[in-house]
């Protein structure tokens, strides 16, 4: 898969003789609705012998358009998004830098520069996709403007349990800790990547050592609580429980911590790059009257996680 970094107007890709079948969107989460849209582009490319392509944007438009400092947390940071697109048989990804200059483009200029000049044969986007200055361009406008030059396909909303599957819905579920619902919406477990760093090592004193995970500040993190997870470390998947929170029983720290206790695993992994998949919530974070009470609860959490994860097959790849 080839990744093209685009910054208008100084860094633009060249015309492609083979042409593209292009899916356009921000695609945070790459949820099941996004997957349906992108797979349509891949299918169109195979039928027309064009290249399957995706156009996405970085950073999130609100960073530029809000007019104030905006903290954005992504369901799928760009690196993770690109990995997922590679697995979907996409040939090319255009990562458009969302700048003030780009935001000021008229809908017509956007279509001229980013669709016609690229030699796009098919363009596929969601029913609610908007583009151009102030979002004035919509799919009806695109269909009319590109008529006779590019085939435009509008994908209707994808629903689950009668509600639209959207990045907003996924963020709400993550905020509430419902990672099992997020798994249904994404079609895969929620994923968090990070590095194992040194912690206070208190877990070892109660026979439940944990790996402390430092992650990208822009990564969305589920609500405080305990979860059944799997972690990819040292080239294998290991089941465990993850605690997100401030450890009120032992320390009540001010900085959020992400700690994973791995089952049947006793290796030094400081500095390791790891991947954590989140399968199901177990309980909310709470303060216990003693370390012994905490230890007993962690044992119950572990037993519950073993039961939950035991019926699930391992991921095919990291």
UniProtKB/TrEMBL annotation:
<protein>
    <recommendedName>
        <fullName>Riboflavin biosynthesis protein</fullName>
        <ecNumber>2.7.1.26</ecNumber>
        <ecNumber>2.7.7.2</ecNumber>
    </recommendedName>
</protein>
<keyword id="KW-0547">Nucleotide-binding</keyword>
<dbReference type="InterPro" id="IPR023468">
    <property type="entry name" value="Riboflavin_kinase"/>
</dbReference>
<dbReference type="InterPro" id="IPR023465">
    <property type="entry name" value="Riboflavin_kinase_dom_sf"/>
</dbReference>
<keyword id="KW-0418">Kinase</keyword>
<keyword id="KW-0067">ATP-binding</keyword>
<keyword id="KW-0808">Transferase</keyword>
<keyword id="KW-0285">Flavoprotein</keyword>
<dbReference type="InterPro" id="IPR014729">
    <property type="entry name" value="Rossmann-like_a/b/a_fold"/>
</dbReference>
<dbReference type="GO" id="GO:0008531">
    <property type="term" value="F:riboflavin kinase activity"/>
</dbReference>
<dbReference type="Pfam" id="PF01687">
    <property type="entry name" value="Flavokinase"/>
</dbReference>
<dbReference type="InterPro" id="IPR002606">
    <property type="entry name" value="Riboflavin_kinase_bac"/>
</dbReference>
<dbReference type="InterPro" id="IPR015865">
    <property type="entry name" value="Riboflavin_kinase_bac/euk"/>
</dbReference>
<dbReference type="Pfam" id="PF06574">
    <property type="entry name" value="FAD_syn"/>
</dbReference>
<dbReference type="InterPro" id="IPR015864">
    <property type="entry name" value="FAD_synthase"/>
</dbReference>
<comment type="pathway">
    <text>Cofactor biosynthesis; FAD biosynthesis; FAD from FMN: step 1/1.</text>
</comment>
<dbReference type="GO" id="GO:0003919">
    <property type="term" value="F:FMN adenylyltransferase activity"/>
</dbReference>
<feature type="domain" description="Riboflavin kinase">
    <location>
        <begin position="185"/>
        <end position="310"/>
    </location>
</feature>
<comment type="similarity">
    <text>Belongs to the ribF family.</text>
</comment>
<comment type="pathway">
    <text>Cofactor biosynthesis; FMN biosynthesis; FMN from riboflavin (ATP route): step 1/1.</text>
</comment>
<keyword id="KW-0274">FAD</keyword>
<keyword id="KW-0288">FMN</keyword>
<keyword id="KW-0548">Nucleotidyltransferase</keyword>
<keyword id="KW-0511">Multifunctional enzyme</keyword>
């Amino acid at each position: 898969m080839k990744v093209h970094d685009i910054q208008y107007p100084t860094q633009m890709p060249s015309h492609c003789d083979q042409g593209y079948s292009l899916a356009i969107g921000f695609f945070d989460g790459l949820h099941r609705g996004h997957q349906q849209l992108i797979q349509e582009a891949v299918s169109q490319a195979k039928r027309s012998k064009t290249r399957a392509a995706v156009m996405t944007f970085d950073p999130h438009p609100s960073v530029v358009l809000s007019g104030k400092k905006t903290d954005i947390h992504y369901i799928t940071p760009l690196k993770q998004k690109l990995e997922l697109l590679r697995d979907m048989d996409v040939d090319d990804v255009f990562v458009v830098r969302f700048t003030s200059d780009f935001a000021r483009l008229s809908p017509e200029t956007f279509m001229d520069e980013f669709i016609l000049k690229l030699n796009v044969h098919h363009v596929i986007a969601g029913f609610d996709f908007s583009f151009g200055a102030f979002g004035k361009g919509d799919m009806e406008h695109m269909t009319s403007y590109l008529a006779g030059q590019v085939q435009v396909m509008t994908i209707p909303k994808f629903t689950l349990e009668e509600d639209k599957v959207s990045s907003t819905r996924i963020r709400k579920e993550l905020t509430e800790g419902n990672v099992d619902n997020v798994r249904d919406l994404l079609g895969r477990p929620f994923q968090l990547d990070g590095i194992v760093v040194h912690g206070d090592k208190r877990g070892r004193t109660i026979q439940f050592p944990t790996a402390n995970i430092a992650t990208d500040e822009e990564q969305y993190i589920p609500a405080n609580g305990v979860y059944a997870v799997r972690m990819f470390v040292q080239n294998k998947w290991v089941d465990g429980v993850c605690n997100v929170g401030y450890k009120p029983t032992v320390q009540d720290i001010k900085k959020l911590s992400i700690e994973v206790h791995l089952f049947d695993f006793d290796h030094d992994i400081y500095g390791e790059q790891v991947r954590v998949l989140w399968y199901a919530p177990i309980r909310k974070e709470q303060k216990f009257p003693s370390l012994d009470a905490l230890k007993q609860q962690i044992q119950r959490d572990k037993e519950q996680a073993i039961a939950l994860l035991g019926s699930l097959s391992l991921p095919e790849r990291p």
